[in-house]
């Protein structure tokens, strides 16, 4: 059985964090989609808030403390990446950008990536496409078509998007799995109608870092 290593970058600043909640939900959905194809997801969460001083020092001095070096290695060696940031002043957080700036310029070439973002208002929903997607295009990553944005109202089921956050999560996860397994089909949005667990619960269980067993990502 093939194992796929997925690095999850969460740039949330608070605890608990809606950014981390979205990152966990995307990781869980991606693991489920890979399992449907007979593969296993090996997931490692990178909480940037825990290594923020190391990220800043890395930019200022060019030296990488052990936690930062480990985080960069996880991302650069991953088979796929899930990157989620809060939106501040219409764009990604400074911490998110600083970390991405430290990633080797050639490391993500051809790597499938899901992009996610959170904000207090739906007015920032286009930030993924105008602010975040160009960064990963510059890194030559293979970004999936569906970006997942979640506003505060979406977490309570009050969002106005007819598809809803769960549907977008499922679709993005299917696109990622398709790229990893070579089964992606252009224009395939069938996963939008697949049942998926609501946000919260199993999808938002905190991971403590390290590799997460497949069984811990499945609904209970």
TrEMBL record:
Region (Disordered), start-end ranges: 180-202
Can you tell which superkingdom this protein's organism belongs to? Bacteria
Q: Does the keyword Oxidoreductase apply?
A: yes
The UniProt GO MF terms for this protein read: oxidoreductase activity
Keyword Mitochondrion among record annotations:
no
Q: What are the record keywords, sorted?
A: Flavoprotein, FMN, Oxidoreductase
UniProt cross-references to InterPro entries, sorted A to Z: CE1759_FMN_reduct, Flavoprotein-like_sf, FMN_Rdtase-like_dom, NAD(P)H-dep_FMN_reductase
User: Domain named NADPH-dependent FMN reductase-like: which ranges?
Assistant: 5-155
Question: Coiled-coil annotation: which residues?
Answer: none
What is the protein named? NADPH-dependent FMN reductase-like domain-containing protein
Give the originating organism: Mycetocola lacteus
């Amino acid at each position: 059985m093939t194992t796929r290593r997925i690095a999850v970058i969460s740039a949330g600043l608070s605890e608990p964090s809606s950014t981390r909640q979205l990152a966990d939900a995307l990781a869980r959905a991606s693991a489920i989609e890979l399992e449907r194809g007979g593969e296993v997801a090996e997931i490692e969460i990178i909480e940037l808030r825990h290594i923020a001083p190391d990220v800043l020092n890395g930019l200022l001095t060019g030296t990488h403390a052990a936690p930062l070096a480990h985080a960069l290695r996880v991302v650069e060696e991953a088979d796929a990446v899930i990157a989620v940031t809060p939106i501040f002043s219409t764009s990604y957080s400074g911490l998110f950008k600083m970390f991405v700036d430290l990633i080797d310029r050639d490391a993500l070439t051809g790597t499938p990536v899901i992009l996610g973002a959170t904000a207090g208002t739906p007015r920032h929903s286009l930030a993924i496409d105008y602010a975040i997607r160009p960064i990963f295009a510059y890194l030559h990553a293979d970004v999936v078509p569906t970006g997942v944005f979640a506003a505060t109202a979406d977490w309570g089921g009050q969002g106005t998007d007819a598809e809803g956050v769960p549907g977008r999560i499922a679709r993005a996860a299917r696109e990622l799995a398709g790229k990893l397994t070579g089964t992606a089909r252009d224009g395939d949005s069938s996963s939008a109608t697949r049942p998926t667990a609501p946000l919260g619960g199993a999808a938002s269980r905190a991971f403590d870092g390290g590799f997460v067993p497949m069984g811990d990502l499945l609904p209970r």
